[in-house]
């Protein structure tokens, strides 16, 4: 690290758990963020400020006026721009030393698999089950840890699914793909603005811990937030030995 980096990241370096070694791992790290909206905004901004060296943003959507109530990476002046272009501008203003790859596209199949395999950690900040399951399958196949978040109305949840750990469940263990879950969108149900900030920031914290190699992740635990009462519930989740996605990987 040069003098400017030592100064910029000094408050991380002062933490014994991170120090120079952990911050160096962050600078060399690559985070893939799926979704540049309510969750992706705070998540990506904290990844950039923390010095994660390469951030890939994936989102096919454009900035809309209705986004600005909660998607803090975007501004009124950038309404109509691709979200990933707006996000790249915001992240580079925060930290010009971070490389930001902006992909304005829907990704699936081999394309998604290649992007996941190139990352050290994946943050699922999407808003639908199809994308979440596709990202989970890619993470399990590539052996890359997944930080998953969701938020709707006043309810949020966050967890880590780490296929490197034999005991860790995957997203499909918790939400089996063959089971029908109600698909709810904030465009019809609404969402409490700070809620996505809370969950997205926690996703960033888990991702930073994973890349830096510190602390205990949320693997095997699901945190659920009721923001109306500001009450957290922690639920232990186990691996499904018959899971159609991860059972074969773990044998």
Automatic annotation (TrEMBL):
<comment type="subunit">
    <text>Homodimer. Forms a stable heterotetrameric complex of 2 MoeB and 2 MoaD during adenylation of MoaD.</text>
</comment>
<dbReference type="InterPro" id="IPR045886">
    <property type="entry name" value="ThiF/MoeB/HesA"/>
</dbReference>
<comment type="similarity">
    <text>Belongs to the HesA/MoeB/ThiF family.</text>
</comment>
<dbReference type="InterPro" id="IPR000594">
    <property type="entry name" value="ThiF_NAD_FAD-bd"/>
</dbReference>
<dbReference type="Pfam" id="PF00899">
    <property type="entry name" value="ThiF"/>
</dbReference>
<dbReference type="GO" id="GO:0004792">
    <property type="term" value="F:thiosulfate-cyanide sulfurtransferase activity"/>
</dbReference>
<keyword id="KW-0547">Nucleotide-binding</keyword>
<dbReference type="InterPro" id="IPR035985">
    <property type="entry name" value="Ubiquitin-activating_enz"/>
</dbReference>
<dbReference type="GO" id="GO:0008146">
    <property type="term" value="F:sulfotransferase activity"/>
</dbReference>
<comment type="function">
    <text>Catalyzes the adenylation by ATP of the carboxyl group of the C-terminal glycine of sulfur carrier protein MoaD.</text>
</comment>
<dbReference type="GO" id="GO:0005524">
    <property type="term" value="F:ATP binding"/>
</dbReference>
<protein>
    <recommendedName>
        <fullName>Molybdopterin-synthase adenylyltransferase</fullName>
        <ecNumber>2.7.7.80</ecNumber>
    </recommendedName>
</protein>
<feature type="domain" description="THIF-type NAD/FAD binding fold">
    <location>
        <begin position="9"/>
        <end position="244"/>
    </location>
</feature>
<keyword id="KW-0067">ATP-binding</keyword>
<keyword id="KW-0808">Transferase</keyword>
<dbReference type="GO" id="GO:0005829">
    <property type="term" value="C:cytosol"/>
</dbReference>
<dbReference type="GO" id="GO:0008641">
    <property type="term" value="F:ubiquitin-like modifier activating enzyme activity"/>
</dbReference>
<dbReference type="GO" id="GO:0061605">
    <property type="term" value="F:molybdopterin-synthase adenylyltransferase activity"/>
</dbReference>
């Amino acid at each position: 690290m040069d003098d400017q980096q030592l100064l910029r990241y000094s408050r991380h370096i002062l933490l014994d758990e991170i120090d120079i070694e952990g911050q160096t791992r962050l600078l060399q790290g690559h985070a893939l963020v799926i979704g540049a909206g309510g969750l992706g905004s705070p998540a990506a901004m904290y990844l950039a400020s923390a010095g994660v060296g390469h951030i890939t943003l994936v989102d096919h959507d454009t900035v809309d006026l209705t986004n600005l109530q909660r998607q803090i990476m975007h501004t009124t002046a950038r309404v109509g721009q691709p979200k990933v272009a707006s996000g790249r501008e915001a992240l580079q203003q925060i930290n010009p030393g971070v490389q930001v790859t902006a992909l304005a596209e829907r990704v699936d199949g081999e394309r998604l698999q290649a992007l996941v395999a190139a990352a050290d950690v994946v943050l699922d900040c999407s808003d639908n089950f199809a994308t979440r399951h596709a990202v989970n399958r890619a993470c399990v196949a590539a052996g890359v840890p997944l930080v998953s978040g969701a938020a709707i109305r006043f309810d949020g949840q966050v967890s880590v699914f780490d296929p490197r750990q034999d005991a860790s469940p995957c997203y499909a263990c918790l939400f089996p793909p063959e089971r029908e879950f109600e698909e709810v969108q904030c465009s019809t149900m609404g969402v409490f603005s700070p809620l996505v900030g809370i969950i997205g920031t926690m996703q960033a914290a888990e991702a930073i811990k994973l890349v830096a190699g510190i602390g205990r992740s949320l693997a095997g635990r699901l945190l659920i937030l009721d923001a109306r009462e500001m009450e957290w519930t922690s639920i232990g989740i186990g691996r499904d030995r018959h899971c159609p996605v991860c059972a074969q990987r773990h044998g």
